[in-house]
Amino acid sequence: MKDLDDLELQQALGKHIKRLRASRKITQYELAEKSKLKKTAIQRIERGHNSTLKTLQKLAKALEIHLSDLLHIPEEHDQKPQ
User: Fold this and answer.
1) Full DSSP string of 19-82
2) pLDDT in tens, 10-19
């Protein structure tokens, strides 16, 4: 994986979380309920806003994956448009 600046990393992570949620066919509201976060927090994270480690742990648990899997952003998500 190439080095990403902070904003690119946050955006790639947000897209990855959105894809994980969508692959499980759950809504932002359902993920918020499962993770004990607000729906607006899920929306902000998926749009690429910064998250704390504690928040990411809650999301990983709600998505029933390890935190390391949540943080493993596939190469295709971390590339800048040319």
Assistant:
1) HHHHHTT--HHHHHHHHT--HHHHHHHHTT----HHHHHHHHHHTTS-HHHHH---GGGSPPP-
2) 999 999 999 9
